[in-house]
Amino acid sequence: MPQFLANKADIDEKGKTAILRGEEARHLSLSTRGRTGDEVFIFDGDGNKFRGIASLFTKDSVTVSSLIPIPSSEPEARITVAQALIKGDRWEWFLEKAVELGACEIIPLVTEHTVVRPEKGEGPKKLQRWEKILLAAAKQSGRAKIPSIGEPLALEKWLSGMGKNDGAKKLVCSERDGECATLPEKGENIIVAVGPEGGWSESELGAFSRKGFAPLSLGPLILRSETAALKALSLLCR
User: Fold this and answer.
1) Is there a single domain that holds both residue 119 and residue 187?
2) Which of 84, 87, 127, 186 is least surrounded by CB atoms within 10 angstroms?
3) What is the DSSP annotation of 63-118?
4) 0.90 exceeded by the pTM?
């Protein structure tokens, strides 16, 4: 049985009940053909997971009773992936896999060598689609948190809002640097930046250095942008 998203306001831990509404309720009752007495797993998207029993089905809601909290499988560290936009379906594939590998936040970047350039006015529509992909991936993979994502930012704008010493381990994937940065301690918050198909420019690498980013080498092979992001996540999500 897949897990379902419940609004935090609809979860009553004292009363040990929760209510699924709208699309989530319809998914349980129609798509998965849930029935009274079925075991149901729910999460609030903010790190909390529960197990309960479906007790009441209506047209637009499902009540889940006998609710008990269950351990979260969320990674100890908060990992932010600043990923240069990728063309085609590979961006959406990356989003799905980044959720599965434990990313907590995804920042779409526009860089000097980014091939994909967002068109004026399309940001909100794309963001809505991306958020749906993140939700579906979080549900499928058993995450307790739904990663956050925003509209694409120019790299310079993103870096300008960041302090040099803000408490997180900051890494930039760099195919030109043979040195491998020291991996973070277990539980340490991480920001990792991954470039586009054409790589980072020299000026961009300089900007990262000035903000305290250490170069992270992913090995001698040249990887696709989305592959580099997933390899970095696999190394860092411990």
Assistant:
1) yes
2) 186
3) EEEEEEEE-----SS-EEEEEE---TTHHHHHHHHHHHTT-SEEEEEE-TT-S--P
4) no
